[in-house]
User: Which sequence fits this backbone?
């Protein structure tokens, strides 16, 4: 059992019994030392693995839980000690993991952690000139039956996205309080081990876990019930809003549990559908949440397996700037970036618009290396994984695949951030200015980005109007000169 398959009822373990199965779990020291993990990300996985091992032992399974230098070495030790007749695993969620198990002679059964297996996605994609998430989403709705009234979508339309893009409310809003779980002995022991690892030189960072992220299936199910009853009713309208005074708003916070297998997408969508049918969740919120799960999440999963392994090295815009120091601790006067990165430090999480339109947008406009941002997000977010980050960062945030995932770059100046957040209030920079020392870096870099890539985007119907507006700027040379200053300051950690 791998660290992102933490569910007794999934894959190879589903039909296993204590009489015929021994369970191997390997906590890899090399894996923990190999990257700059956020401590809450590392804790969620290691404590989750240890909790599952304890639950399986309580059920009667013999569990060989190894803290070995690597998964490969742990598997070798297990074979030497027990000489199993066969070793069986659920298909891993990574290309390299599947290749490694195959090379080691491990049999695999198809993963059932998603509602669309990569082979099903490949069948859907066959013969299509372009893969569009909306087409995939509607196909998923029809075949899975979620929010359908016969052959028609519930509420009379497939997508309520236009209802779900409100800026944050100007008055105080009763945002739901997340569920917190008391850390138990297993949680605390895992945290102590990570502290010791950090003290020995491992590049672990971030604030300690406080019980927001569930490390057991029982806790994840409690979080699901809370999300459906208390969070989802207000989810839709403000799902794209950003606030400096609240880090979670009405987001369900279920993605870490889903990505580690503690929750299954079917049970989540079943709960959402039932709440909608009871009249407890409005259609816009129910549709928005289900679209994120069976639409976008599974679309990302399918494209990852369709485009790997070449996809991980794509860089169509030729972006090679190192990750700015602000991502790894340097201070900044950009209030939106400061608050977003503060949330990452405190919780190992921000919601999708902060990832896309603050962190991703800044990296896109500055020309940051796609692979550098992928690694940072993979390591820093509690719901991070290669399959999550490659399509989302390379395709959606940085347009590094040249439009394979998204037909336009999600580039924006300070006006968008002002519209969708309160970050601009009291900021040292003026979102309306393109030039000058107090010009908003997003606004300056936005016009410079369009100028740098004018030839590429001049024929893109979704961007051409902005490109032509850039060409009419009377101060374009001054803007580009200020952009060079901004990039220099960003590289030096002085912006």
Assistant:
């Amino acid at each position: 059992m791998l660290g992102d398959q933490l569910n007794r009822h999934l894959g190879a373990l589903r039909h296993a019994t204590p009489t015929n199965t021994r369970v191997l779990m390997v906590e890899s020291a090399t894996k923990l030392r190999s990257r700059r993990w956020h401590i809450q990300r590392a804790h969620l996985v290691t404590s989750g693995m240890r909790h599952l091992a304890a639950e399986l032992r309580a059920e009667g399974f013999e569990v060989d839980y190894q803290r070995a230098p690597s998964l490969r070495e742990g598997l070798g030790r297990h074979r030497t000690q027990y000489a199993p007749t066969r070793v069986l695993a659920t298909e891993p969620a990574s290309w390299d993991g599947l290749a490694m198990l195959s090379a080691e002679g491990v049999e695999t059964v198809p993963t059932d952690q998603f509602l669309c297996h990569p082979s099903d996605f490949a069948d859907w994609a066959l013969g299509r000139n372009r893969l569009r998430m909306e087409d995939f989403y509607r196909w998923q709705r029809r075949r899975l039956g979620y929010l359908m009234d016969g052959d028609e979508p519930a509420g009379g339309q497939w997508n309520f996205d236009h209802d779900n893009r409100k800026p944050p409310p100007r008055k105080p809003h009763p945002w739901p309080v997340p569920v917190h779980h008391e850390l138990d002995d297993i949680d605390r022991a895992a945290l102590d081990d990570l502290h010791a690892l950090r003290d020995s030189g491992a590049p672990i960072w971030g604030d300690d876990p406080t019980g927001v992220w569930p490390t057991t299936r029982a806790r994840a199910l409690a979080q699901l019930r809370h999300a459906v009853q208390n969070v989802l009713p207000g989810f839709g309208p403000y799902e794209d809003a950003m606030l400096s005074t609240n880090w979670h708003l009405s987001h369900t916070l279920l993605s870490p549990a889903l990505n580690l297998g503690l929750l299954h997408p079917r049970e989540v969508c079943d709960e959402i559908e039932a709440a909608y049918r009871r009249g407890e969740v409005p259609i816009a919120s129910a549709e928005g949440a289900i679209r994120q799960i069976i639409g976008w999440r599974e679309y990302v999963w399918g494209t990852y397996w369709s485009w790997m392994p070449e996809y991980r090295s794509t860089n169509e815009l030729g972006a090679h700037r190192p990750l700015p120091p602000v991502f790894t601790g340097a201070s900044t006067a950009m209030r939106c970036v400061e608050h977003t990165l503060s949330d990452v430090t405190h919780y190992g999480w921000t919601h999708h618009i902060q990832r896309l339109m603050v962190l991703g947008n800044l990296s896109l406009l500055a020309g940051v290396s796609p692979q550098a941002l992928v690694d940072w997000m993979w390591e820093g977010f509690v719901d991070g994984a290669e399959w999550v980050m490659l399509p989302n960062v390379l395709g959606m945030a940085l347009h590094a695949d040249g439009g394979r995932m998204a037909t336009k770059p999600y580039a924006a100046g300070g006006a968008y951030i002002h519209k969708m957040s309160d970050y601009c209030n009291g900021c040292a920079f003026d979102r309306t200015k393109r030039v000058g020392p107090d010009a908003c870096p997003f606004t300056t870099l936005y016009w410079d980005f369009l100028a740098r890539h004018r030839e590429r985007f001049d024929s893109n119907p979704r961007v051409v109007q902005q490109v032509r507006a850039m060409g009419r700027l009377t101060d374009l040379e001054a803007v580009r000169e200020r952009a060079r200053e901004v990039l220099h300051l960003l590289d030096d950690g002085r912006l």
